Structures are given as C-alpha cells and as structure tokens.
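>> received
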Amino acid sequence: MGKYYFRRKRLEKIRDNNFEFRCVTPQSHKLLFEALAYEDRYFKDMTMQLKSIKDYYMCYYCDEDGKIQGKGNRGDPPYISISDWKIVEKKLRKREGYCNVCNLEIALKQGLSPKERKITFFHEMIHAYEAELQWAEQDHAKELVFIFLYKNLIKKVGEKKANSFLKIVSGSMFWESSHSVLFTLKSLDFDIRLKLPFGSVFSYGKTDFFPKNKDRVK
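>> returned
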C-alpha cells in the first residue's frame, strides 16, 4: 500500500473524530454552520460549484492532426467542502487565527472585533479550501480554480494591474508568509467584493504592497 492510501485513511479518521466533536460542542456546531453559510455565499469558486468552472470539465476529441472532432464531459467536479472540519474560538497570544490542515481545524482568536473576526475567518477558510483542493481526486482541480480566479481578477482590475499583483506576490508576500498565489488571488477577490483595501484579507500588514482604495478597480 502506498503513502496516499495511509494519508487518506488518516484523513478519514480525523474527519470521523471531528464529526463526533462538533456534535457534542455547541460552539463548534454554531461556528460550522456560520462557515457553511460563508461557503455557500462566497466560496462557490473554490468548491467548484460555479457553472463557469464546471464548464472546464468539458473535454474535446481530436484526430491525429489535432483537429477537434467532438466534445464530451469528463464528469462532475470533485466534492469540495469543509463540512467535516473542526472550527473553534479560543485564546491565542500572537495571532488572530490559524488553519491546521493536518488536523482539519480552524481556530479564531477570542475577542476580535466583528470586522477583524470576519477577515480572519475568511483568511483561514481560504487555507482550508486550498488544502481540500490539493487533496481532491482530480489533480487538476486546484489549477482550474486558479484559472477562474485569475481571469476574474483581470475582469475586475485589468490585466496590467492583475499581473502587477502576481509580481508583488512572487517578490514579497509568497516568500515571507508561505501563502500561495492561489491564496492571494482569492484574498484579493474578497477585498474587491467586501470593498476592503487590497491586501486586507491576506493580512500580515500587506495592505501597503497594494494600490489604495481609490485605485481599486478600473
């Protein structure tokens, strides 16, 4: 048996334990339903439920010369959700929250302001969905979401500014905080949708790396 079999069995065990946990903990039960409400409203791209992402699952049949002869469907996208993750609020000293992908757990710091709490919640949820995409049975799932988010960002801010953001990511944030380009694209999507300064959901003081509010969209 390969390493992927044992990793899958370990994740199944963790998911079972988390199911038992949330059934007996009122706080976690409430937080989970809050997260699932956000999932339905804000994360249909990362859960691959948008039609524009499902359309990527169309495949084309070509002849030996590469000419398209027909098209079909490669099946449904993988099921992506954090419905079996454990979500808690507790005392944290040095940070507002964390996402433990090894134990399928999201933690939020107690006592945050409503705005800080929401931004932190979204930040950690992006980490969680990115992990779920990484574990998806279809290896290309993460890449399809990346393509969608990148095209969406170009529509909102223009290709020139979108590409400048990617340069910022590779030159500054990626190496400092170990956040991927996919993570950054989704965090910028939130900044636009919630009318926040660019870099707010990415956090870690990175709003200074991006254009100010007046330069938000073209």
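>> Residues 1-6, 213-218 have pLDDT under 50 and may be disordered.
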